Amino acid sequence: MEFNFARRMAHLKASEIREILKVTERPEVISFAGGLPAPELFPLEEIKEVNRIVLEEEGTKALQYTTTEGFAPLREWIANRMNSRLGTSFDRENILLTHGSQQALDLSGKVFLDEGDVVLCESPTYLAAISAFRAYCCEFVEVPTDNDGMIPDELERLLENTERVKIIYVIPDFQNPTGRTWSLERRERLAQAAMKYGVVVIEDNPYGELRFDGEALPSVKSFDQTGCVLCLRTFSKTFCPGYRIGWVAGDKRAIQKYVLVKQGADLQCNTIAQMEIAKYLELYDIDEHIAKIRAVYRRRRDLAVKTMEEEFPEGVTFTRPQGGLFAWVELPEHVNARDVQEKSLEKNVAFVTGGSFFPNGGRENTLRINFSNMPEDRIVEGLRCLAGILREFV
Amino acid sequence: MEFNFARRMAHLKASEIREILKVTERPEVISFAGGLPAPELFPLEEIKEVNRIVLEEEGTKALQYTTTEGFAPLREWIANRMNSRLGTSFDRENILLTHGSQQALDLSGKVFLDEGDVVLCESPTYLAAISAFRAYCCEFVEVPTDNDGMIPDELERLLENTERVKIIYVIPDFQNPTGRTWSLERRERLAQAAMKYGVVVIEDNPYGELRFDGEALPSVKSFDQTGCVLCLRTFSKTFCPGYRIGWVAGDKRAIQKYVLVKQGADLQCNTIAQMEIAKYLELYDIDEHIAKIRAVYRRRRDLAVKTMEEEFPEGVTFTRPQGGLFAWVELPEHVNARDVQEKSLEKNVAFVTGGSFFPNGGRENTLRINFSNMPEDRIVEGLRCLAGILREFV
Q1: Quick check: is B190 in a domain?
Q2: The whole model's pTM is what?
Q3: Closest Cα of chain A to B165: distance in Å?
Q4: What is the span of the domain harbouring residue A320?
Q5: Of B214, B248, B283, which marks where a domain is finished?
Q6: d(Cα A180, Cα A190) in Å, to the nearest integer?
Q7: Residue range B247-286, pLDDT digits in tens
Q8: What is the number of domains present in chain B?
Q9: Closest by Cβ to B267, choosing from A60, A61, A100
Q10: Which contiguous run of DSSP H or E holds residue B309?
């Protein structure tokens, strides 16, 4: 038969990241492509222990259905931690556990977006947020963005002149894909603009705990006096991604709507995964663990930046991220990163081209480098190889 | 601020089942409300073992991101099993793992439904399928249904005369909420009608393995010659629901679209849960395990039916399911099951009222009885108590 798919399917395409991950499974490939955390840092022995304890203590409860909202002790831990970091006054009713922060993006689209509604986003922005929101047939307007975040006057101008803006989507810390971090002033200006225009801010912050240099900056949520900022977070980068546990936190009136759509989306998160994370947080010091991750990624970032500085040809620029997983490379305008990628894959070096991070297209002269997943010697080897290829193009 | 939610949020309400589950957590409550499998039958010791082995053998791979499609050995096991049961010729590319079959319902809505499209469904039908599809702003047309399934002439008449029918949604085995099983002829007629009109059938079959009496009937998929039937299944009722692992199986052109929307929805299923189920299936005999579940549920069904036959007053009718988890009770037309529920909750007996299983409302004189989750003595005690309350109403 000829399938008669929904109209939205015409706009959805396979994530280039997920597709390239299939290539990078080959062990000979040096991959800067995924957003994979370093598996050697997963607390494997602790997880074995926690796993054993949860099945011993909770028994079949760990395997049964549970509430849509999620395991109460884990939601309470999250509320307390956010309160101490952000100055919020959350309790567990402010928190919904989700299957990764990716699901929180999807649910955000479902809760807020009608066909034709507008999402304001950074330019470029996170690829899989584009797919999640696009499934609700929205439009994207890219807000002019520099190294300090969205440019406030441009944001205000767009809020003033654009109909049906429903969401401002931002990643203020170590953004994906650019690695950029918003300045303090920009965070405050964003919150003020959102409050003034009554628009929801989705503040996605998967990497905030992974700061290598400088002082942590207050989250956009810290400036929110009306409940307009919803926070998306995850255990994927600080614990492990395989459990698929993230969350959305914010005003209870909004969280109740998220709970409703999560009921229809998949009823609830994996029960035992929620209990295991809660037990890990009870028995171990996650901050000590995060400090270890930071130390390793910092060295990798240092090495990646140093190698790019030494080896990349004139005319190629790149960001020097203060944290997170990614750096962003801009090539001379006439160079198409897809051509570079083709050559580099021949030499078993993988990265993601930057064009798809722009929801309205363009900027094919960009690419994203992940530095968290490869050991140090392979980072140097891979980036040297990439530099050699770049010299052929510029 | 005043949140400006999407229009769909006006139609979504909290699942009465999920809400009543909060009440039934109190141990003194005898609950016929949820669709909870019996936890004492979960293979807890085997899961402990499998858990240990997977973390030992797979190490950090079990904790890392994996592909959206799912863990290949598990998809292969599923394809082989479906081939041997349904006569299909699936390979792993025909299978996408989902967070429970609930997620497969949500993804079905996303893949097929535009606003205003029509879903044909049984009357009544599964509550959480209604919420999942309704999020895509579809209309429901209830097909007149009797004890053997949808009435074929009525179905054909509706297919002939209704614009924009995109999905026919059915649960042919031990339906939720009625416990009814479709006859062989009705299955074949449904497949023929769907092929003739080029409409997709979502054949949801969470309970098919739990047959207590009689011979298994061929699935609707067995009669499908064009790829129009998509099969939704789950490990929730045969293994345990806490892992949230189900799947959708069918024509590869459709499954590829499901993969695309799952990427945006939550990237992938819990990695270790997929590996653990695969390992369980490798090391243990799931059919032996399912036989145990069947034996226990059969006794509970027998006892529930016997108690209802002996105790329920004249004028109250109910189904005698050949399998699954549910029986369906119809009260005299003037009795509102919500009034009965109020009285029965006062006496710590819980059930779900039937009205919300009709997407277009009405039939408030119905209720659903789950018989899988309570031990035998409490089934008798609870149904006797309910019978006493019913005698006050009829």
Answers
A1: yes
A2: 0.96
A3: 10
A4: 8-43+288-393
A5: B283
A6: 16
A7: 999 999 999 999 999 999 999 999 999 999 999 999 999 9
A8: 2
A9: A100
A10: helix B286-311
Q: From B126, which residue of chain A is nearest by alpha-carbon distance?
A: A264
Decide if A2 is inside a domain: no
Minimum CA–CA partner of B70 in chain A? A242
C-beta atoms of B44 and A59 within 8 A? yes
Give, in degrees to the nearest 5, the angle at Cα A308 between A302 and A313: 165
pLDDT number for residue A283: 98
CATH number, position A223 = 3.40.640.10
pLDDT score of A27: 87
In a domain? residue B29: yes
Q: Which of B1, B113, B264 is facing A228, going by the closest CB pair?
A: B1
Partners of A198 on chain B (C-beta within 8 Å) are 1-2, 4
For residue B211, the cross-strand partners are B323
Asked if residue B111 is part of any domain, the answer here is yes
B336 and B232, same structural domain?
Answer: no
Alpha helices by DSSP H, listed for B91-137, are 100-112, 127-134
Helix axes B100-112, A252-266, angle to 10 degrees: 90
Distance in angstroms (rounded) separating the CA atoms of residues A381 and A203:
36
Residues B197-254 have pLDDT tens digits of: 999 999 999 999 999 999 999 999 999 999 999 999 999 999 999 999 999 999 999 9
Domain boundary among B283, B304, B324: B283
A63–B257 CB contact, under 8 Å: no
A153 in the same domain as A119: yes
Q: What pLDDT is recorded for position B171?
A: 98
Which residue is closest to B4 within chain A, CA to CA? A112
**What local confidence, expressed as pLDDT, does residue B47 receive?**
97
Q: Which residues of B are less than 8 Å from A37 in CB distance?
A: 64
Taking alpha carbons only, the member of B196, B127, B94, B99 closest to residue B155 is B196
Residues of A in contact with B228 (CB under 8 A): 1
CATH number at residue A19: 3.90.1150.10
Mean of per-residue pLDDT scores for chain B: 96
pLDDT per residue as tens digits for the range B344-383? 999 999 999 999 999 999 899 999 999 999 999 999 999 9
Nearest residue of A to residue B127, measured between CA atoms = A264
